[in-house]
Amino acid sequence: MAQIGKRNSLIVLHSTPHGIYLDGGEHGEILLPNRYIPKGTSLGDSLDVFIYRDSEDRLVATTEQPFATVGEFATLEVVSVNRNIGAFLNWGLLKDLLLPFREQADPVRVGDKVVAYILLDEKTDRIIATTRLNRHLSRQRPPFKPAQPVALLITARTPLGYNAIVEGTHVGLLYHSNVGAPLQVGQRLNGFVSAVYPSGKIDLSLDASGYQRVASLTDRILEALKNNGGRLEFDDDSPPEVIRKHFEASKKAFKQALGSLYKQRRIEFTRPGIVALDIRDEKPGDWKPSERRM
Q: In whole angstroms, what is the distance from residue 8 CA to residue 26 CA?
């Protein structure tokens, strides 16, 4: 049976002047309008389509890909507000996605970018959005391990740091002390699990912990030096946001990595920038932390 709010592989049944009809199982025949029909489609073909309801509440198919499907979190922009029912979000389809007033954790305005969860409303069988995120996060014990790399979605700034959805299932905390530059609500980035407590609380970091972080980053710096003729414009005075953009690391971690390379006589500071003192035909990870090049 075709799943509303998901991508489905459906069989072409027959064509009409308005489009082709697909086999939706218990949902019956579902129209794929002419504008979405792939060139060369024939009866009996299987098409990958997304199923949702049009403005007249009919099930319809599209070959377009929404920014998120039912069961996923996404950062979406508010494009209009209807004072009677709620706000509408751009989710990448011709028909905007409704964010009802009852599902708004805080009032939204046109132009706002909000982190929303996509769900199928049990009462209306329509796809809607909600910014009341906690009720849609897992209550199970987090399966993550310390130092595990994870995908993060920033949901809120707090006095302690930033709340982030981890791998689309649990919420964790990035402390301000572990963030080199301000983050934006709705921002997606990669991070690491620092700790998982018996209570289910998750601490996060934007860098791997301990020497593993420094070693990995020093490898990347050495590789960047090799690829740039032995010179880089970055050093420990570079802005945190610039370091984050180019090396996906905090300024603190970057300074530690530069210090490690400097002590090993691998680099020299040129203020601004750094220059390699010994770039050989070696692969990242070949050097050891105790080696010194005299």
A: 14
